[in-house]
Amino acid sequence: MPRGTTPFFPTLSGYARGDEPDARTPSPVLYAYGLFTVFVVLIAFVVDILVARNQELKAGELELTQHARLLAEHAARSFDSVEVLLDELNRDLSGGHRWWEWSDAHGHEFLRQRMTRTLPQIRHLIVFDGQGTQRFSGSFYPSNPINISDRVYFQRLKDGDARTRYGPYVGRNSNRHTYAVARRLERPNHVFAGVLMAALEPQYFEDFCWSTRPDDSFQAALVNNAGILVALCRQDADDQDEFLGRDFREVMAERDFRHASPLAESLRSERHLLAQVEVPGYDDLRLITVRTTESTLRQWRTRQVQVIALALVAAVSLLIAGLLIRRQFIGLRTLTVELTGHRDNLAQRVRQATREIETRRRDAERANRAKTRFLAAASHDLRQPLHALHMFLSDLRQTPLAPDQQSVLKRIEVATGAMGDQLESLLEISRLDLTRIEPERQAVPVTDLFAGLTATYAPLAEASGVTLRFHPPRRGSGVLETDPALLSRLLGNLIDNAIKFTPGGRVLVCARRHGPDHLRIEVRDNGIGVPAEHQEGIFEEFYQVGNTARQAEKGLGLGLAIVRRLADLLGHRVRFASRPGVGTVFGVVIPNPPRPRFGTAPRGPGVTVLSAFPPNEDERALLATLSGWGYAIRHEELPLPAGRLLPGRHDPYRVTLYCKRQPGPFGDEELATLLQGTVIVIAPEKETHPALPNVLNRPLRPARLRALLRSLAPQQENGLGRLGEFPHP
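Now predict its structure.
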């Protein structure tokens, strides 16, 4: 560099000596900046690794909980099958059979035949007499001379319980751990005669669990509320019996959770994750699943190696860039080219990452579309055999059948009807997901809409013992701007839900004004209601309250999911409120052709009436009186929407009439609202409000009210009609 030329990046060391800066010596500031950048990049990678690890563990806990629910559902169905078998045997033995007089061979054959027709989860099927002595066994002949009068479940049944469950305990027939499901046997005079017991086979749980495990480190167990093992599934448990009857915390997860509460829903240690759920319908049993953190974090560790490698590459790249800066004035063109190369390299990585993200998004969308197509295809293909089943049932109804066969036929018809409803719901939701439906909006009278719904759902309500009423708006415009077919399907789902969950109750479908440009159609019932903890999820697919066993006659939980899709398609808002034991209200807000808005001048004096809905008898009489005097009435429902002010001095309806129902002082916000405009307060008897100038007490004197209105609204009072009034219930 020629003398006298100032370098572009002068060095501090050169200035300190008073010499001319050397172009080949980098600035210390650049060194510090490069090191700081490397440090920030490394910190960012470390934070990303830690955050990804925590997210992976949370996802593993969720997956473990879902697997536990799957096993719990299976266990519940297995227990349900045993319960049904015992109920049938109990009816057989108590329905006239004098089983206490049977021979050992006859009783053994009776139970053995029924064991061969049942599920493999039953180890023994045994009958004990009233003293607890084993009389008949479906597995042993002759029966072993054992007595169970000291067993807890025997004492419960003897003391009057109709059914019970107990375990785990060591069976005296097999000397192995088992779990008992038992029924009380009675003589025709209802005297205790003995016990019918099914001893369950823990190995059955292990067989199912083993076939569904996600990896070899997975463990699962069925325990009672005390945490005692009833059945176990893990790789190193060749013989379950040595572990059953012990606390699961001492057996599972290498005792990592031995000091934890046995009722904790999820636990995490350095080596293991644990989740547990209740067995649906069996509050004395819980399902516990365990998995090692090592197997959960296997994919994360692979990504960790990749991230570390990328961090090292980035750090090395930054260090190389720092070394290149040393030659900031030598080979500036070469340095520029190299920096451009690094920029292109990083841009390529960004594009590659973007493509990967886009690919994953498309894969997720394809999977969702495939799911929808599968539901549509499966539902459609099942229609033909279901139709054939209906035809067979029709033929059976024409055939003379015994009473017990008639009962079975009715149960088949109920199940077939539930299956048909479920298929229709699946087809409905798949059509909404697959097809691009364009709403055909038109003007629809509310009366016509209600007439069609009445014809469709009145017979269903009558068959269910439900009182179904439709109340269209009595005054004002009753025309909606919507697609009538889609809206009918939306309201039909809400009405069907209301009838289903309001046995013997009342369902009201009414239309009321919602603001100046909309109507709200409400479906009200006084049914069982929805608990607060379930209200956020009821519009999700397959979400059901009170149907953890997934009973077919209660549907699939798709009705409200269809309602949400139809509302989104139509652009209508759906509102919802419910109180358990009181009832539920669904409201659909629908555009309504315009009616006179604020600022529309009446042909004479106007009054704005503020009152709660619905109006009581006194308020309806007051409105009739005002209308008879020639005042135009505009109704506002309390509370006023946020931001809405009372009419001002230049508003044609500037006098506000406030009907106060409850005695007591005004709240601060309520009083501030009333002080905004010209207000006449109709207050309870002998109540005073000094802050308000125009207060009239009940019983109201019409002459005083009319004189006050004339002084506040002095327009001419001739030639007026009734422009509005309260909506009636």
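Residues 1-25, 547-556, 594-601, 715-729 have pLDDT under 50 and may be disordered.
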